[in-house]
Design brief:
The chain has helices at residues 12-19, 26-34, 43-53, 64-68, 75-95, 104-123. With 124 residues, it is mostly helical. Helix 2 packs across helix 3 (43-53). The longest helix has 21 residues, at 75-95. The protein is globular, with a radius of gyration of 17 Å.
C-alpha cells in the first residue's frame, strides 16, 4: 500500500498538522523524517521495520553500515536517521546550557536531562 492509498486524515504529516507531534507514533515521526519508503513498502511500514529491527533506544547507537543492512535503507535514509540522532543529542546538550563539564553539578545537569528521557522510554 502506498502512502497516497492511506486516507489523508491518517497520513503522518496531516496528523501532525491536526494533532501535533506528541500524538504521533515513533514510526510516524520517523516516517516524516524519511519522507519516502522503498519500492516494496511505504514509508510508515519501512519506519516500523526499522524500529522493530533496531528499536528506538538503540537507534542512537547504530552506524551507517548497520542501518544500511535493513532492506530498503540506503545511504541517504541511513544518513537522515544518523543526522536526526546527532541533532537530538545536540539539542539535549544545548538545553542543559553546558558547553564544558567542569564539576559534578555539570555532570548531574547533563545526565538529568538524558535520564528523564531514558526513564520515560523504559517506563511507558
Amino acid at each position: 500500500m502506498k502512502i497516497f492509498d492511506i486516507s489523508p486524515e491518517n497520513r503522518p504529516i496531516e496528523r501532525l498538522d491536526k494533532l501535533g507531534a506528541g500524538a504521533l507514533s515513533d514510526a510516524e515521526l520517523l516516517a516524516i523524517i524519511l519522507r519516502t519508503g522503498s519500492r516494496k513498502e511505504n514509508v510508515i511500514d519501512l519506519s516500523n521495520k526499522i524500529l522493530s529491527t533496531i528499536g528506538l533506544s538503540k537507534l542512537a547507537d547504530c552506524s551507517l553500515t548497520e542501518l544500511k543492512e535493513i532492506n530498503g535503507i540506503g545511504v541517504m535514509k541511513s544518513s537522515q536517521i544518523l543526522a536526526l540522532v546527532e541533532l537530538t543529542k545536540r539539542i539535549s546538550l544545548a538545553k542543559t546550557n553546558i558547553t564544558k563539564i567542569t564539576c559534578a553539578k555539570d555532570v548531574f545537569d547533563y545526565m538529568q536531562q538524558n535520564l528523564i528521557g531514558y526513564a520515560l522510554t523504559k517506563c511507558f
